[in-house]
Design a protein that fits this description.
Endonuclease Iii, domain 2, mainly alpha, 2 domains, Endonuclease III, domain 1
Length: about 230
């Protein structure tokens, strides 16, 4: 189902609100920069491993996977059970091992190699379509690869970001992941995708928490319907 198209006035107000949020979070947390982008395939596998676990556990799982398999072709040829054993510290190892093996097989079959550097230069819609056509890769995973590894103007949304944007009233509760990603990418100021992504996650962990949010300390309170009601 397509999301309803906002009026010109509504779109202008939403963009103004996003600019306000971006500026206030940068004033609070600074302006983060993506200075060391990873290889796109490394980022893709790492993002798959990060699902439903902590950063520490997913990093351990990725390191263990690379230690067990010196290159991605070795991982592709391995049995899912062998991959699962290598990534068990990241949780959901059985499911993730199948996704990783299938993704590697699909990439090799389509590209003839494991080089995804073309994602940095092809049209953005084409890059998104390629990644999301891989079984087990959704809009958020694709957006992480394109933002972090390719410096493309996309906006990954995790649970912290969804929570904040719903509380401030930018993303309706009924929106799907795909609709929310599409909406936010249409609203962001140029070259602010990385900054807002990182700062919203910081804000969600420190202030706009799932339980007992610190609304009285929030730099976004002026534009937050949830916060105004809470206070």
């Amino acid at each position: 189902m397509k999301s309803p198209k906002p009026s010109r006035a509504e779109l202008a107000e939403q963009k103004r609100q996003v600019r306000f949020i971006t500026q206030n979070l940068e004033a609070t947390y600074g302006i983060p920069h993506n200075d060391r982008p990873d290889n796109p395939l490394d980022e893709l596998i790492g993002t798959i491993l990060s699902q439903s676990t902590t950063n520490i556990n997913s990093s351990r799982a990725f390191a263990s996977l690379r230690q067990r398999f010196p290159d991605w072709d070795a991982a592709r040829q391995a049995r899912p059970a062998s991959i699962a054993a290598a990534i068990k510290s990241g949780g959901l190892a059985k499911t993730k091992s199948v996704v990783i093996k299938n993704v590697l097989e699909e990439i090799l079959a389509r590209c003839g190699n494991y080089d995804l550097s073309f994602l940095r230069t092809v049209p953005l819609a084409e890059a998104k379509a390629f990644l999301t056509s891989l079984k087990g890769v959704g809009p958020k995973t694709a957006a992480c690869v394109l933002l972090f590894s390719c410096d493309r103007p996309v906006f990954p949304m995790d649970t912290h970001i969804f929570r904040i944007l719903r509380r401030v009233g930018l993303v309706p509760e009924k929106y799907s992941d795909e609709q929310a990603h599409e909406l936010m990418e249409s609203l962001l100021p140029p070259k602010k995708h990385y900054s807002l992504h990182i700062n919203l996650i910081r804000h969600g962990r420190l202030i706009c928490r799932p339980q007992n949010p610190k609304c009285s300390e929030c730099s976004l309170i002026e534009h937050c319907a949830f916060g105004q009601t809470s206070l």
